[in-house]
Design brief:
- The protein contains nine helices and nine strands.
- By secondary structure, the protein is of the alpha/beta class.
- It has one domain: Ribokinase (UDP-N-acetylmuramoyl-L-alanine:D-glutamate ligase), CATH 3.40.1190.20.
- The chain has a nine-stranded mixed sheet, with helices on both faces.
- Strand 5, helix 4 and strand 6 form a beta-alpha-beta unit.
- The chain is globular, with a radius of gyration of 17 Å.
- The two termini are 27 Å apart.
- It binds adenosine-5'-diphosphate and ligand LCLJCK34.
- The site of adenosine-5'-diphosphate (ADP) has 18 residues, from strand 8, helix 7 and helix 8.
């Protein structure tokens, strides 16, 4: 049977991040994609021009009807915007006993727009992180969750992964896209071992949606029954291809190319 994945996230009208990136990634990884939209953003390659959160009723209904009828082998959360939305999503994921939960703790878009209210960080820590199979913070997100000012080395990334693990997630991937390093290094910590996923840093400005795409690829692989380490490994290859063929569309930071990994495999 075809694997199914649900993304609970914000809509990016520009198509590079959020729900749109997730669904494109699920499709590329041969997983049936479903969505519950938490907020609509008016977004393009120049940034976020408007944020319109959906009502709790609308969000609950979307999740309810999908999980009660179709079900999901894995669920990804992205932009959740408020404490109230986090509490709602956490309750529903518990009620439906979802097994594989990937929490991408989206906080700030690359252009600087806030996608999570400051007061929601505590709710994220208290309710959602402890339910997660995998969490995928970038360096600023890891700092915000831990109350740290900076993470600027792989040693600090390992320390952050350990401290984040103590908040209850089964696995932590600290993404190193923001590290000033010639390689792009992500570190997975499963409570015992630190595993490094490393590729050469690609010199491009077209990286809109990298975090969403990477977490969506992990979600898709978990939905198909792969282990967390296999899922992270495939997601790393997927995002590296997508960035290497990033799309120079629009006047600003273009999106990654979700079809690039498939093309590479068939070459
Ligand atoms: N320039 C780059 N070259 C290669 N990989 C990158 C580059 N920028 C980010 N990545 C990878 O993309 C994924 C998303 O990372 P990151 O940019 O840190 O997340 P976010 O989009 O949440 O800020 C990670 O696997 C990271 O290593
Ligand atoms: C609707 C929406 N959700 C998440 C993001 C952030 O996406 P990310 O993959 O971290 O990429 P950047 O926006 O930082 O390039 C978003 N922008 N919009």
């Amino acid at each position: 049977m075809k694997a199914k994945a649900l993304t609970i996230a914000g809509s990016d009208s520009g198509g590079g991040a959020g729900i749109q990136a997730d669904i494109k990634t699920f499709q590329e990884r041969d997983v049936f994609g479903m969505s519950a939209i938490t907020a609509i953003t008016a977004q393009n390659t120049l940034g976020v021009h408007g944020v319109y959160p959906q009502t709790l009723e609308a969000i609950e209904k979307q999740i309810d009807v999908v999980l009660s009828d179709i079900g999901a082998d894995s669920v990804k959360t992205g932009m959740l915007f408020s404490k109230e939305i986090i509490e709602l999503v956490s309750r529903l994921l518990k009620d439906y006993k979802v097994e594989n939960i990937v929490v991408d703790p989206v906080m700030i878009a690359k252009g600087g727009a806030k996608l999570l209210q400051d007061e929601a960080i505590e709710a994220l820590k208290k309710h959602l992180l402890p339910q997660a199979t995998v969490i995928t913070p970038n360096l600023p997100e890891a700092c915000a969750i831990l109350g740290w000012s900076d993470i600027n080395s792989t040693e600090a990334m390992e320390e952050a992964a350990l401290e984040l693990y103590k908040l209850g997630a089964k696995n932590v991937v600290v993404k190193g896209g923001h590290l000033n390093h010639e390689q792009s290094i992500d570190i997975l910590f499963d409570g015992k071992t630190y595993s490094y996923y490393t590729n050469n840093r690609i010199n491009t400005k077209h990286t809109h949606g990298t975090g969403c795409t990477f977490a969506a690829a992990i979600t898709a692989e978990l939905a198909k029954g792969n282990s967390v380490s296999e899922a992270v490994s495939t997601a790393k290859s997927f995002i590296t291809s997508a960035i290497s063929e990033g799309l120079a569309i629009g006047k600003g930071i273009g999106p990654t190319n979700h079809g690039a990994y498939r093309k590479e495999l068939t070459r």
